[in-house]
Amino acid sequence: MLLFMAFQDLVTELGAIAARLHADRDRASRQVETLLDGGWSGAAATAYDEGWADWQAGADRVLDGLEAMTDLLRGVERSFVTTDRDGAAAVGRLTARLG
Question: Which CATH class for the 1-98 domain?
Fold first, then answer.
């Protein structure tokens, strides 16, 4: 039971990490957009914008991976619960038959 509770905590924490990273990425995006839309131009602005686009693409891949991992682990969690419930029901039926 302790192992399952630790697994549930891990899944919850992974989801929370993904949510925090998503919020942080969105906040950084707004700040950079304000900077770039504020009239900054020239070679440095163009280079920064290109690097920023690469960073955003990488951040999106990381977030997609974390969200996919969280979804998969939630599926495993549901499977554990179903298997445990079904096993308990089978033991209950066997116990009833044995008297």
Answer: mainly alpha
